Every structure is written in C-alpha cells, then in structure tokens.
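Quick check before the chapter quiz. The format below is the same one you will see on the exam, so make sure you can read both the input and the output lines.
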Amino acid sequence: MGSTRPERASLTATPATATEAARRAGDWRRSLRLRLVLIVAAVCGAVALSTFFDIRRDREETLALAERQHDNVAGALAEQAARALQATDLILGQALLLDPDTPGAPDRQSIPGLLSRHMSGVPQVRNLFLFDPARQLHLTTATNGAKSDLSDRSYYLAQRARPDLGLFVSEPFISRATGEPTFVLSRRLPGPGFRGIAGASVDVGYIRRFYQALDLGPGSSIELLRQDGMVLVSREHPQLNTQPSAWMPALQALGPTEALHTSIEDPQLGRAQVSLRRVPGYPAVVVVGRSERDILAAWRGKAWKNLARTLVISVLAAVLLIAFLRQLERHERVTAQLHQSQKLEALGTLAGGIAHDFNNVLGAVLGYAELASQQSGAGSAQRRYIDNIIVAANRARDLVARILAFSRPGVGSARPVSLQSILSEAHSLTCAALPPSVSVAMEVPAEPLVVAGDASQLHQMLANLITNAVQAVGSGGQVRVRARATEVTEARDCTVGRLQRGRYACVEVVDSGVGMSTEQMERIFEPFFTTKPVGAGTGLGLSLVHGIVLDHSAALEVSSRAGEGTTFSVYLPLIEGEPAQDPLPGDAPQGNGEVILVVDDEESLVSLAEEVLASLGYEPVGCVGAQQALRLFQAAPERFDAVLTDAIMPDMSGLELLAELRRVRPTLPAVLVSGYGGPDLNAAATDAGAQAVLMKPLGAADLAQCLATVLARAGAARARRAGFAA
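Here is the expected output.
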C-alpha cells in the first residue's frame, strides 16, 4: 500500500530552515533594539537640558505668584476686618446713648430690646451690653448673661484705668453669657468720672468660618492679630491661645509700615512666605502665611511631570520594543490557540467517527456476556468473572458517552453516591495492571462519604488521577489515596474551581514521582498536553478531570515540586442521605413468538441480536444491511410484528429504511438503535415512525423491556381500531 507519510529528508530540512529563519529574525530584533536605544539617547540629551531650564524658571514663577496671592488676600481681609470693626464701633456709639441715667434716656426695661435692634444688622456681634457695677447697670442682649460680673475683664479694667483709652480691643476669651469664644470691643460711657462701659462681643467662630472659606492650599495660615501680637482669630486653631502669635518675628519686622511680605523660618512649617497688612484705623493686623514646601508642591508635581516626560521619552524605545515582542508572542499564542482548537475539533470528529464502531464492539461484548451470565450458575466463580466483564463494558459505554459530550459538559444524572464504593472500584481497576514495584495504598474512613454526582463520571475522574499517579512514579514508588471529611471555614480559590464554606469530602492522590515544574503545572489541564514520553500518554485524562470537577461544583488543588512528587486534592460537597442503590436486575419480559426483523450492517451484531431475541421468546429474522431487510419485508409485510434497525448503515440509513417500510405498512412497530443519540435523533426517529430509540451497546434487559412496551402499545392500538370497525 502507498503511504502518505512525508519523507525523512523533507522532515529534517524543515528544522534547519526554521532555525535559520529564527536566527535572522533574532538578528533583526537586536538591530532594531540598538537603533531605538541610540535614538532615545540623542532625544533625551536635548530634552534633559530643556527640562532643567523649565524647572528653575517655574520655581521662581511659583514663588512670585504665591507672594502676589498672599498680598491680595491679606489686603482684602484687612479691608473686610476694617469694615467689620467699623460696623461694631458704630453700634457701640449708638449703645453709649442708651445710658438710662442720662436725661431723656429710655427706661431700663426697654434698653435690651433697643440694643438688640442696634446689633441686628451686624452678624459678627453676638452680644451688646452696658456695664457699671457701681450703678448696678448690666443691660445686655444675652438672655443668660444679665447677672454676669464683668468687673474682672481686661477691657473693663483698661477702660476704668485710662479715661483717654477710646476704643479697646480685648484678648479672646470664653464668654460667660454665650459660652463661645469671643473678643470685646469696648468704650467708656460718657459723663463725669467713670460711669461704666459699653461693649460688643465679637463672635470668633463667625470670623473663623469666613476665613475657612478661603482655600489657599495645604500649609497655609490666616490670622487676625492684635497689634501687640495677640491672636484674635486663627483659621487653623479653634482653641484660644493667650500666647503671642508664631508670626511674631514677621510682625516685628512690619514696624510702622502698613504692609510687608517676607520669609521667616517657622519651627513647624519650616521656611514660610508671610504677608502682613494693617487693618486701617484699628489696632489689628491680618497675617497670611504658607510654607514654601506646600507652595512648591504644585511646582514639584510639575517638575516630576517634566522628569516623567523625559523618562517616558527615554523608555519609549523599550516600550515599542516590548510591544513588538508582545505582538510576536500574541501571534504565537493565537497560532497555538488555533492549533488547539483544531485538535479539539479533530477530537470531536474522531470521537464521532469511532463511536459507532466502538459501540458495536461493546455491544458484542456486553451482549454475549449477558448470555453467558444466563448460562452460568449463581454464585460461581464463572458468574463472578462474567459480572465483572459486564460492569467493565458498562463503564466503557459510559466513557464513550462522556467523550461524545466532551464539548458540551454537564452532569448526566446527579444522585447520592458512596465515595468509598467508587474509590474501591477505581482502586481495583488500577491495581489489576500495577508494575511489580509500585504500590497503591488506600485510606478511607469508616463513616460513609456521600456526595451528589454521576457515578460513572466520578469513577472516571478518580481512576484518571490514580492512573496518572501510578504512571508518575514510573518503575518504582508509592501512591497514597486518602479520603476524609473536612470543613471549609473560608472561601478560597483552588487550581480548578472555588471552595465555598461548607463540608466537603477531600480525596488526596499523592505520588512519590518526579513532580512537575511551574511551567508544566500551568498546562496540565490542556487537552493533548502530557509530561509523559511520546507514546505513553494522550493528554486527555486531566482535561476530562477538569470538566468533571467543574460539572460537580467541586474544586481541585494541585501541589507539586520537581523531584518531590505531586498531590491532587479533590473537594466534593458532602450531602445528607443514603447513597442510591443500583436497581437489581429483574426478570426480563418474555415474548410470545413475535417475529422481529433485525437490521444491522455488522453481521456479528445481527447474530448476537438473534440469539438474545430468541432467548427472550421472540422469533428473530436477521438481515445484514438495509437492502436485504427491504427485500424480505416487501415479500411478506404482514409476517413481521416489529422491526429493530441500526440508525447508521452504509447503503441506507435506519431512518430511510423505516420510511420505506412504513410506505408498505404504516402501522409497523419500529425501534431505532444508535450509538449517538441526542434530541435531534429522537425527533427524527419520531418523525420517521419509530416508537423508541435504544442506545448502543444494547443490554438484554433494556431490549426486552423496550420490545414488550412497543408491542403492547401496538396491540392496544389494533384493539382500538377493531372496536371502531365493529
């Protein structure tokens, strides 16, 4: 026979060509890298000088801008303070006229109301009062300050001691009338001698809130000082401070001038820029200051941006090179993904192509095993061996169904199953072919571990893990399989899946093999990837394990080190309840000599079906191929009670055969047999007139039950038609 395999010469020439192309590509990349680095060096030299010049110029401009801003703010606040103090002084003048002991003055009861009206338009004044303890004069707008003794206050003492004092601004203090921070503007009541004072309490909080509305940036400070340095209002410090201001050195430098901008060293702020402005007409000074560190914060940010710009330009070549290399990697990755997709598609095509033939082989194995089981004595060694053959054949049937569903995973039939039972079966299956120097130790708890899932899938998953572990230890070593119940208290991600809080059955498969590297562990679940030598593995086992774990809402943790073995830990959610028991085989329904037309393209399966049907009490008529069946049926259509046909045959499909048969006899009961199944086949079979669809490989019990049901329905239909005819 001719061969389509490429010649060895062409295979050896290809690597050499690929190596030369790779070398040229590497030389081109190195040359490109060198050119880009040279371009970056030339550009960075020019940009660095420009950046240095810009940074120095921006620093000087930032400090000059801050100086102008502080001067403007200080000037505006000085004007505002002058207006506020002038307004306060005006209402003091009006209060001086309300002395109740002067001719024409109002009576004492009405004076507090008049004082309240005078101060109503001046929001910074919280209290307006007249005070003279000698005349028991204490008239105030404060409802709770009528009995307060103010004779110890500095403003009272200063006015009593100095007749020519005029307007006096006190230090800040906590008002006895309002309980809030304040300072007082006071004047002597007119008249001979000392007749008391009129005072206005200025709300420190009101002025402070006004100052707080001005945002000069972090590290800034605004204060209203008395001309001796006492702090009247501080934007940054709400508590009262009887000590001179920290800006006292700047205040001393102000001297008799009206305004000053200077730099001082502050213990807390460091070097600071300060603007001072006298309040016109009043003994107060507005101070606006800010540390140079905070003033230059924006400049530093801009400087760093300039430096970052230079750095970006410097690394631009590297970024372009990295982007270019990543593009190459992306191309290789896309190519690999395409190749992987092609392999998966090929797997599906291969699985679909061999499923029919493989199911035919399994059908023969399972069918003849069931016939042999019927002929063997119950409890005999022969019966036990045959039962094991049937179990293995059923597992193989489930495996084929799983491979066909590889691209559409999902748990077929979730039910409570005993993990110990599945582990025991997987252990027995693996130990049957162990190398002499390899041992598998099993540790399972006495209490049952019941999980919800598909028994065949769980068996396949655990068998794959144990088989992989046995192959990993090679010619000598040990595999330990441990099962236990565990409580997961915190959710966490695993290598496959995510563990939630709850009770799990943990199955650990530990081998003493050579372990895996990090790169290998990242790929172990890829289809067709294997760490075994060529010919020793397919690379599909762990891919199926990956899908089964996710299908069962489970998780899988893998830990391995090169030279230290590997541990696979599977976490399956535990459930309450008893494991489901497989139904015991009952007596198969027997036929009454009905003639069954059996059609298949495999002669061995036709012979097997004839023997099985004969053992069930039917009269089988076997046909190899649809054409032979069609000829026999057309010769005597009424002879046959039912037809059992394969779905896929080379000359004519089972669906086409049923269509031809039902043209001759529309009421013919029919059963379709297939190795594929699925909703599409079931719908097509129903449209073609089939009463049931059986999946290969066929079991005698399933076949007997199906035929009995189909024939019973056909008999009932005939009886109804006969009743209508009568």
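If your answer matched, good. The chain has 17 helices and 25 strands.
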